[in-house]
């Protein structure tokens, strides 16, 4: 071709670490990087500069950028709120649990084919309220990357959609959605800290506050303090937080031990 451009989107931290491992394995210790011969030493950066002619670093996500990301992820088409739509697999007329597996699949496919317009891919449990959206935007300081922001929103919607409608209403009435979103933001943004925080919450006294446990773990672990009471609009007792910890712990490799050592629904 007379002209073509290749654009590569890559995390340089991972790329440099991978190349460094490759160089160490193939070349061994860099004996050439001694006095007087350092310019002969092969480095991962040399390789990157040879392959990529124009590196371009994307600016980090700021508070406004995170807010726009949240709004875009939570955009809902009006059709998602249409009460005439429902999930075919949840209808009593297609209760196929007693059929053989092959017959179940055939029946479900038949139902989808005959009533494709009835299938709702965005159930009400996935549609967040204005209060939830507004609070999610305030968590930008805990979310380091757009990828982490997307994971936060996806996990919260997954948890919310699994709750019965009565529990969702209570979640909004009590403001517990703020606690869930805050803990998920910690889990996504700083999973190593969450691995220390979640067990401390589970083992703490019911009358302790989340703020006390949060800052105690942060001080012992060398992490930054966070004013939880400001985030949540007041002090929250651990007795109101503990029921959520086992459920949230399922969604990270770092907190798997919390799930295995705790009774959860």
Q: What is the topology?
A:
Elements: H1 12-27, H2 44-51, H3 63-73, H4 101-114, H5 130-137, H6 146-161, H7 165-174, H8 176-189, H9 191-203, H10 210-221, H11 228-232, H12 238-241, H13 245-249, H14 256-260
Order of helices and strands: HHHHHHHHHHHHHH
- Structural class determined from secondary elements: mainly alpha
Number of strands: 0
Strand content: under 5%
Mean pLDDT: 77
Largest sheet: none
If you compute it from the alpha carbons, what radius of gyration comes out, rounded to the nearest whole angstrom?
25 Å
* pLDDT < 50 stretches: 77-109
Distance between the termini: 60 Å
Helix content: 40-55%
In DSSP terms (H or I, runs of 4 or more residues), the helix count works out at 14
Summarize the structure.
The chain has 265 residues and is mainly alpha-helical. It is 53% helix and 0% strand. It is globular, with a radius of gyration of 25 Å.
Walk me through this protein's architecture.
- It is a single chain.
- With 265 residues, this protein is an all-alpha fold.
- It contains 14 helices and no strands.
- It has helices at 12-27, 44-51, 63-73, 101-114, 130-137, 146-161, 165-174, 176-189, 191-203, 210-221, 228-232, 238-241, 245-249, 256-260.
- 19% of the residues are buried.
- The model is unreliable at 77-109 (pLDDT under 50).
């Amino acid at each position: 071709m007379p002209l073509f451009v290749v654009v590569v989107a890559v995390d340089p931290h991972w790329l440099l670490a991978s190349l460094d491992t490759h160089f160490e394995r193939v070349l061994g210790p860099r004996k050439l990087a001694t006095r007087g011969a350092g310019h002969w030493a092969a480095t991962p950066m040399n390789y990157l500069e040879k392959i990529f002619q124009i590196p371009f670093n994307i600016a980090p996500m700021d508070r406004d950028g995170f807010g726009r990301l949240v709004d875009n992820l939570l955009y809902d088409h009006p059709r998602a709120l249409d009460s005439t739509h429902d999930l075919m697999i949840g209808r009593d007329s297609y209760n196929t649990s007693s059929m053989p597996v092959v017959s179940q699949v055939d029946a479900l496919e038949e139902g989808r084919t005959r009533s494709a317009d009835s299938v709702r891919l965005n159930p009400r449990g996935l549609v967040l309220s204005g209060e939830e959206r507004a609070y999610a935007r305030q968590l930008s300081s805990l979310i380091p990357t757009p990828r982490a922001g997307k994971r936060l929103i996806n996990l919260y919607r997954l948890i919310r959609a699994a709750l019965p409608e009565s529990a969702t209403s209570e979640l909004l009435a009590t403001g517990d959605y703020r606690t869930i979103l805050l803990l998920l933001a910690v889990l996504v943004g700083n999973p190593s800290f969450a691995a220390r925080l979640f067990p401390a919450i589970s083992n703490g006294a019911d009358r302790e506050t989340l703020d006390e446990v949060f800052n105690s773990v942060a001080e012992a672990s060398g992490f930054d303090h966070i004013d939880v009471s400001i985030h949540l609009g007041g002090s929250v007792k651990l007795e109101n937080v503990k029921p959520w910890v086992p459920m949230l712990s399922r969604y990270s490799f770092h907190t798997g031990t919390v799930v295995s050592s705790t009774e959860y629904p």
